Amino acid sequence: MGSIVIYFSAEAGTTRKVAQELAKKLDADIFEIKPEQPYTAADMKWTNPFARCNKEKLGKKDVPVEGRVENWDEYDTVYLGFPIWYYAAPNVIGTFCKGYDWNGKTLHIFATSGGSDIGKSAEKLAPYVKGAAIADAKRVTSASEII
Fold it and tell me: How many CB atoms lie within 10 A of CB 31?
């Protein structure tokens, strides 16, 4: 069985950088979660109450995802990374997770953020990853804080 690093990164690319560094250190496969409708800078402007990120989070809306992880059954360890939005994972993460069978997987959650801590991200994600053993969940700035 193998490991995979799965991530969603916002416009700053912080989570992408950590995910790529982690995949290289682990010699793991990598998959980027991409919403079908890419986010624009205006979509991400959380200070605007009408911005897409706010509408999705507050409206608890699913965010359709482009593509799928091939050979999902070949992975027993999943590293899942994202930026923190409202002390939790962006909705695109939940939508992605709902599309897979998590039974028998060990899940390591990592989050990047300029100011927010990881909050209750693991608890809030648990219903979307039923069957997975959530090993840890932490806010990081580099891959060395994960492994």
Answer: 19
Full set of structural domains in the chain with CATH: 2-145 (3.40.50.360)
Q: Identify each DSSP E strand in the chain by its residue range.
A: 2-7, 29-32, 34-35, 65-66, 75-83, 106-112, 133-139
Residue 11 has pLDDT above 90, yes or no: no
DSSP conformational letter for 85: B
Predicted TM-score (pTM) above 0.85: yes
Residues 47-62 as b or e (16 or more Cβ within 10 Å = b): eeeebbbbebbeeeee
18 CB-side CA count, 13 A: 29
Mean pLDDT of 58-80: 94
Residue 95, token pair as written in the block:
């939508």
For the segment 39-57, the average pLDDT, to the nearest whole number, is 87
